[in-house]
Amino acid sequence: MRKKFVVVLSYVAFLLGGVSVLPVAAEEAEMDMDLMQTIESTNDNLSSNIALENGESAIADAQTLNELFAVVADHYEKELAAGKDVAEAIDLTKKSIKFSSEIITFVQQEDFESAANTATDLARTCKTCHNFYKED
Amino acid sequence: MENKSRREFLKNTGLGVGGASLAGAIPGLHISAARASDLVDAADPLAPKEPHFPAKIESVIWLHQNGAPSTLDLYDYKPELVKNAGKPVPDSFLKGIKTSTQGGVNELFVSNQRSWKQYGESGAWFSDLLPNLANHADKLTFIKSSVTIGATHDISILKLNTGDLNPGRPSLGAWISYALGTANPDLPPYVVLYNGTSEPRAGSVNWHSGFLPAVYQGTAFRPGASPIYYLDRPELRSALQQRNSLDLLNKLNQLGASDRPLDTELKARLRSYELADRMQVAAPEAVNLDKESDATKKLYGIDDPVSNTYGTTLLRARRLVERGVRFIQVVSGAPEGETDITSWDAHDDLDKNHGLMAKMVDKPIAGLLEDLKSLGLLETTLVVWTSEFSRTPWGESGTGRDHNPWGYTQWMAGGGLKAGFTYGGTDELGVQVADKDTAVDTYDLHATVLHLLGLNHLKTTYINNGRSERPTVVFGKVVKDILA
Q1: For residue B21, which phi and psi values (nearest 5 degrees)?
Q2: Three-class DSSP labels, B183-215
Q3: What residues have CB less than 8 Å from B190, skipping those under 6 apart?
Q4: B29 to chain A: closest CA residue
Q5: pLDDT digits (tens, 9 = 90+) for B271-280
Q6: Element (H, E) at B383
Q7: Does the N terminus or the C terminus of chain A have fewer Cβ atoms within 10 A?
Q8: What does the pLDDT average to over B308-319?
Q9: Residue B99: which of A117, A120, A136 has the nearest Cβ?
Q10: The total number of structural domains that make up chain A
Q11: For the whole model, what pTM was predicted?
Q12: Chain A hits for B99, Cβ within 8 Å
C-alpha cells in the first residue's frame, strides 16, 4: 500500500513536471527519480501499445493512468479547498481522466486510430500541466 | 533452464526479433495489422513506398535559419513594443514562462533603424530587412504561434530536427526517407546543404537516422564542385580502370550472392556500391550550376558577394527537387569571407548581425520561391522557414536580444497550404504565444509536413527495442487550420 502511494505521488510529480507539490503528506519526500521515470514510461508504453494494437496492455496502461489521475484530482481538490490557485490543474486533471477513460473505450471497440489520437491529447495535456507549473 | 524450454525460448525470441525487425523496416506496419502493400524488398530499403494517403507535395526544402533570427525584427510587427521600448517588461507578460536565459530580463528593446510595411493582398507585415521576400507575402503561410523547449542552440536545434531534446531519435528527413524511399535511385532521398566553410553547428546528429537503419540518414553535400567526401575518382585512376575494377568486384560479389540468396545484408551492400558508382556522376551534375542562366543566378542573388553562397545553396536545392530528392535540409551559414558574424545569434548589435544575415538570405529565398513558382514546382514542393527558437523583445547587451522559445514566427510555402494566411500570434509585446491552444511545437510542424507528404505521423512507426516509435514522439498534431 505504502509502495503504491509513493508511486502515486511520483506520478503527481511527473504530471507537474518535477515541481514540488508541498505541502502534502510526508511520504512525498520519498519520491525519487526512478519512480518518476517508471511512471513516465507508462505513458510512453500506452502510445506504443496502441500503435502495436496490443489491446490488453493498452487498456491496462490507460486504466492505471485513469486511477492515478483520480488521485491527482483528489490532491488538487484539497489544494483548492485550502485556498491555492490550482483551478488550471484541476481542469487539466479532469481532462486527463476523461481522455484515459475514452482510450479504454476506443481500445475495447478496437478503434486504435481514435485511441492513438486521444493518447496524443492526453500526452499534450500532461505537457501543458508541466508548462503551466514550471518554476520560474 | 531445461533444454526444451531453452529451445522454445530461443525460437520464440528469434521469431519475436524477426517479426519486430520486419515490422520495423516497414512504415505503417503494425505486427497485428500488416498490409500486403507494405511489404518491401528488405534488400532495397530505399525502394519507393506508397504514402498512407494522396500526397500534396513531393519534396521539402527545410530552411533552418541557424542561430535563431529575431522574428520580431522580420515578420512580427508589435506597435506596443515600439511604444514601450526602454520600459521594463510587465510581470503579466512573463507569467508561466521560465526566464532564466543568460541575459536576464532587461528593458524592452527596439532598433531605431527598423521600419515596417504591409505587403500583398494578405497584408502581411515585413520589416525593412526582407524587402525581396516581402514581395512573396501571398505565397506564405505564417505560423506566428511557434513554440519549443530549451534555451541553448544545440539542444533546441536537435529538437527542431528530431522532435526530442536528447540525441538518438531520427531526424524528420530520415523518417521521410524511411517512409517513402527514394524517387531517384541515383541520388540519396535526403540531402543536407549548407553555406560556409565548416559543417553546421551541432553537426550530423541533426540529420542522423537515430534508431532507424543508417541508410535513411541525410547525406551532407559540401559547398563547392565536389559535394560528397571520397566520392571523386582518384586522379591517378582512369574512368576505364575504375569501371573494370567495379565490374570485377560486381562479378565476384554476384558469385558470392548466388551462394547466399537469402542474405539481404549482402544484397543491400551490393546495391550501395552501385549507388555510389551512379552518384559519382549524378551528385556533381545535380549541384553543377554551369547550365543555369545568368538571369537565374541573379534571381538567387549569386551576383552579390553577401548572398552568393546562400543563393548557390538554394539553387542547388531547386535542382535537387527537380531530381526527386525528397528532403533537402538547408542550414544557413555565413557570407563568404565573413568571420565575425557566422549565424543569426545576435546577443549584441542586432542591427549589424541581422542586417548582414537578412541580406544573405532575403534575395535567395525570394528567388527560390519565384523560380519554383515559374517552373510549376511550388505546388509540389514545401519550403519551410524554421529556426531553433527566436529572440526576446527585451534587450541584451544594450543592442541585442536573448533567446525566446515561448512564441515566434515560422512560415511554410507550397502545396496543400492556405497561401497568404497567418495562423496564431504572440502577445502584444511578442514575449509568448497569445493563445496557448494555438501553440505549434516542433512535433506539430513535423506532423504537418508529414501530412502534406501523405503520411499519417501516427502510422509512420518503427519498432525499436520492442516499442513502437513514431516521428512525433508521443505528441504531435497536424495544424489543420493552415491546410488548403
Answers
A1: -70, -35
A2: CCCCCCCEEEEECCCCCCCCHHHHHCCCCCCHH
A3: B173, B174, B176, B177, B207, B216, B217, B218, B219, B325, B326, B327, B329
A4: A52
A5: 777 777 788 7
A6: strand B381-386
A7: N
A8: 97
A9: A136
A10: 1
A11: 0.86
A12: 136
Most confident of A64-68, A132-136, B270-274: A64-68
Is residue B312 over pLDDT 60? yes
B435-454: per-residue pLDDT in tens? Answer: 989 999 999 999 999 999 99
Torsion, Cα A76 A81 A86 A87, to 10 degrees, reads: 100
CA–CA separation, B469 and B113 (whole Å) = 48
B470 CB near a chain A CB, below 8 Å? Answer: yes
Sequence-separated contacts (24+) of B92-97 with Cβ below 8 Å: B93/B427, B93/B429, B93/B431, B93/B432, B94/A136, B94/B431, B96/A131, B96/A132, B96/A134, B96/B432, B97/A134, B97/A136, B97/B406, B97/B431, B97/B432
Range of the domain at A110: 2-132
A44 touches A16 (CB < 8 A): no
Higher pLDDT, B268 or B346: B346
CATH of the domain at A108: 1.20.120
Say if residues B162 and B151 touch (Cβ distance below 8 Å): no
| Partner A contacted by B30 (CB < 8 A) | yes
Say yes or no for a CB contact (<8 Å) between B474 and A45.
no
For residue A23, cis peptide bond before it (omega within 30 degrees of 0): yes
- B395-434 confidence digits (pLDDT tens): 998 899 999 999 999 999 999 999 999 999 999 999 999 9
Residue of chain B whose Cα is closest to the Cα of A54: B32
| B468 and A CB contact within 8 Å | yes
What is the spatial distance between Cα B247 and Cα B251, in angstroms, rounded to a whole number? 6
Tell if the CB–CB gap between B468 and A47 is shorter than 8 Å: yes
What residues of A are in contact with residue B467 (Cβ under 8 Å)? 44-45, 48
